[in-house]
Amino acid sequence: MDMRCGDRRQDENPVAVREFELCEACEIVGSCRQGIDDLRRQADGTVRGEIVVPSAVAGRAVAHGGWTAWVFDELLGYTANSLRGFSVTAELAVKYRRPVPLGARVVLTASGRMDGERRRLMRGEMRCVDTGGLLASAEGVWIELADADAHYARATARPQKTSL
């Protein structure tokens, strides 16, 4: 089985093209820490991006599965937020099909739909640019926040003591 996937040109410095804002942590450093520098909305409403898998995400000679899940969380999140309002991840399931080689050029696609007033059902794929082979796929649920500030304030609040 041919495990080759994409051009192995990590030394390339692609021009960043983003139709979506960087997350807060990436905005501090000025670029996407995952390496997603080309992310665009397509005419049909899907989101498409390309990435060269960075060597810094090595598991054992391939991309770590946690990096793959992180990429899907961001990709599907951008897509969910483009549907309407600000939402957060409620569920994320990743299916790993093949190892993702370091330095490989892969294409990311995502789509989603509203399912009720605040719930979004999302799905995405990571494919090899060379062969079109499916490397991983993901499905998830995002929930629109009624009050984003209150949501994040809960995360930083001190826990209250409870008695049993």
Automatic annotation (TrEMBL):
Family note: Belongs to the THEM4/THEM5 thioesterase family.
Main location: membrane
Domain (Thioesterase): residue spans on this chain: 62-111
Membrane topology annotation: Peripheral membrane protein
Organism from which the protein derives: Nocardioides ginsengisoli
Pfam families registered for this protein in UniProt: 4HBT
KW Membrane (keyword) present: yes
Full protein name: Acyl-coenzyme A thioesterase THEM4
PANTHER family, sorted: ACYL-COENZYME A THIOESTERASE THEM4
CDD domains on file: PaaI_thioesterase (cd03443)
EC number(s) recorded for this UniProt protein: 3.1.2.2
Subcellular location(s) per record: Cell projection, Ruffle membrane; Cytoplasm; Membrane
Catalysed transformations (reactions): octanoyl-CoA + H2O = octanoate + CoA + H(+); hexadecanoyl-CoA + H2O = hexadecanoate + CoA + H(+); (5Z,8Z,11Z,14Z)-eicosatetraenoyl-CoA + H2O = (5Z,8Z,11Z,14Z)-eicosatetraenoate + CoA + H(+); decanoyl-CoA + H2O = decanoate + CoA + H(+)
Keywords, sorted A to Z: Apoptosis, Cell membrane, Cell projection, Cytoplasm, Fatty acid metabolism, Hydrolase, Lipid metabolism, Membrane, Transit peptide
Keyword presence, Repeat: no
Single GO molecular function: hydrolase activity
